[in-house]
Amino acid sequence: MLIDCKFSSQAEVIFENEAYAVLYKPRGMPTAPLSENEEGTLVSWFLKRCPEAVSVKGKKDIEAGLVHRLDTATSGLVLMAKNQESYDALNLMQGNDLIKKTYVAFTDIDNESDLNADFSRLNLPYRISSQFRSFGPKGKKVLPVFYGMRDFSSTAKIYTTNIIDINNLDDSVPRVTCTLTQGFRHQVRAHLASIGLPIYGDPLYNGKFKDFPQEKIEDHSYPLQLYAVGLSFPEPKRDFKLEDSKDYVSFLLQPPDKMIL
User: Fold this and answer.
1) Are 122 and 129 in contact (CB under 8 A)?
2) 77-81, 121-125, 158-162, 228-232: which range is least confident on average?
């Protein structure tokens, strides 16, 4: 389903049925509350609209049927289950890499990166796989830990970002499309920066924006050019089992063709 969305500053229900809802989260709105009764998050907004979903027991009680998160500064699609059976099915899918998320990012080119690649000759899809560790003041940033690095662990989870398209390489701001199934905090941002494609407007991973006003960093109001444009997953039918993963549903926002500042 191709959706014409204007990437506005307001949350929207893109699609819903009795099992789940696909929501649009605007930039600057937190996905989930950090404490009970916190207002201004996508989850609290949706639960006011759909109070019956409050009873869903998700990863945390205050998150209800939230299946996955977006960084506060990222705008795009988020999946919410509306009942317990649907949440359990969607959570099972996510744990088995059956929910695919698609992102579009406008980036800079960092010629001093460790990769220093000729992106016009990059074989696509290009796979970036790593573990992560927190670093920096208060652990607000994450650092990819690749195989062979000192901190790499044989038991820690590995997260993968697949770059499937790079457009506008002749421009100063290339547009990168990538996919993932299971995500880590800041995964796309840190992975793209690690190969020399830091996202435009990112004060944490793009050195050009490191002097962005601290108050805007704290309230996530910086113009991060990262958009969660696609979701694809099996329809969570009653009594869902992994072998039922044949009938996929897909939702795709019309990707922006230029930056939204």
Assistant:
1) no
2) 121-125
Number of structural domains (the chain) is 2
For the cut 90, the answer to whether the pLDDT of residue 136 exceeds it is no
**Nearest partner of 97 among 240, 249, 241, 233, judged by Cα:** 233
pTM here is: 0.93
pLDDT at 114 over 90: no
Residue 204 corresponds to which tokens in the numbers above?
């944490």
Looking at residue 196, its amino acid is G
Strand partners, 22: 15, 79
Query: 115 and 90 in one domain?
Result: no
Q: Is the pLDDT of residue 147 over 60?
A: yes
User: What is the DSSP-derived secondary structure letter of residue 151?
Assistant: T
Q: What is the DSSP string of 63-130?
A: GTTB-----TT-EEEEEEESSHHHHHHHHHHHHTT--EEEEEEEB---TTSSS---GGGPPSSEEEEE
Which of 92, 99, 65 is closest to 240 using CA atoms? Answer: 92
Q: Are 120 and 209 found together in one domain? A: yes
